[in-house]
Design a protein that fits this description.
heterodimer; A: 183 residues; Rna Polymerase Sigma Factor, Chain: A; Arc Repressor Mutant, subunit A; 8 helices; 0% strand; elongated; B: 173 residues; mainly alpha; 7 helices
Chain lengths: 183, 173
């Protein structure tokens, strides 16, 4: 946190190249978060880059009392939500024209060997976007409910409800999978 | 026994306010299920950003980018160069020390001194030649020289004529 502030101050003082330690530190977590949300590697790379560019251009608006990581996640989540909205609209238009039945294979699922983990990963991808986002921020990034609420600009109560519903959905699917295995 | 809900367990695991105690719930089936889910969610494998991600980002931002492998190569190159220079210098030093004979040191020193003096005189001669050249390139000096030399020539011609007339006896000079 203090280290981030040091680099941010240097960038604000005109040392543009000092933005690279911040990119190095957060590129992977932001990329993974966006990849989980959009489920397409190319889009995830573009969105991650755009999020960093947005952060760089708006660094003067960043207040040092806040966490840079959370601020970056706020930018990334809003950018991703905008992208998902646009994509949804585009897909609705596309669906009127083409009907495709190709199953989607997540690039992350190919990395997961364990069957239950794979199932969980698949189920996360099937969650509604808002549930998926709270799950990722809570469990992948270990953020507090209040921090997630601040990032997503929603009340903490809503975060709790979404988390509870998302977990319930995941638990149910995993139990179902276990029962299938026993039978 | 009071039935514990998933919500209570999740609140407990999230670090929210809860009246539950771990000793009381650790054997509960729901607690085990929730704990397992939390552990699995935490341990989902991540995926790093692609290799050229930083390079493309810095290009878009207009930031100078010097990747790690280039830093390593530059450092290695400089190290090799420094090592070569050091070893060559050390070899040369040992070679010179091996050649030096104590009895011949005064002779060697005088030789070096004479060589230096030769060099200095060569530089002086060069400087002198440069001054001559500059004197000739100066038009005022050149005119003065031409003027003086023409007068001297006239005097000489006059003198030679007088000698022919035998009016002047050169032996007197």
């Amino acid at each position: 946190m203090k280290d981030d502030i040091y680099w941010i101050r240097r960038v604000k003082n005109g040392k543009k190249n000092d933005f690279s330690p911040l990119v190095k530190r957060y590129k992977d977590v932001i990329f993974y978060f966006i990849l989980r949300m959009v489920q397409n590697e190319e889009d995830a790379v573009d969105l991650t880059q755009e999020s960093f560019i947005k952060a760089y251009n708006n660094l003067s608006n960043f207040k040092e009392k806040y966490s840079f990581k959370n601020w970056l996640f706020t930018i990334a989540s809003h950018h991703t939500i905008d992208f998902l909205r646009k994509r949804k609209q585009m897909r609705e238009i596309d669906l009127l024209e083409i009907d495709t039945d190709e199953p989607y294979v997540s690039p992350i699922d190919t990395l997961i060997k364990d069957e239950r983990m794979q199932k969980l990963s698949e189920e996360i991808d099937l969650l509604p976007e808002n549930y998926r986002m709270v799950i990722l921020l809570k469990h992948e990034e270990s953020l507090k409910i209040e921090e997630i609420a601040e990032i997503m600009k929603i009340p903490p109560g809503t975060v709790k409800v979404w988390l509870y519903r998302a977990r319930a959905q995941l638990r149910k699917k995993l139990l179902k999978k276990d029962e299938e295995n026993i039978v | 026994m009071k039935k514990i809900s998933y919500k209570d367990i999740e609140n407990f695991l999230d670090g929210e306010k809860s009246s539950l105690k771990k000793e009381e719930i650790k054997e509960d089936k729901r607690f085990k299920e929730t704990l397992e889910l939390f552990t699995m969610l935490k341990n989902l494998p991540g995926k790093p950003a692609p290799r050229n991600f930083e390079r493309n980002l810095y290009r878009r931002l207009g930031i100078f980018y010097f990747p790690v492998y280039k830093k390593v190569l530059s450092f290695a190159g400089l190290s090799v160069f420094a090592a070569t220079v050091y070893l060559s210098a050390r070899g040369l030093l040992y070679f010179i020390i091996g050649k030096i004979n104590l009895a011949r040191i005064p002779h060697q020193l005088s030789l070096i001194y004479s060589r230096i003096m030769q060099l200095i005189s060569l530089i002086k001669a060069g400087n002198h030649l440069k001054n001559i050249y500059l004197a000739f390139t100066n038009p005022l000096l050149l005119l003065t020289l031409a003027f003086v030399s023409s007068i001297l020539m006239l005097i000489l011609i006059g003198l030679s004529r007088e000698v022919k007339k035998k009016a002047v006896l050169l032996s007197r000079f």
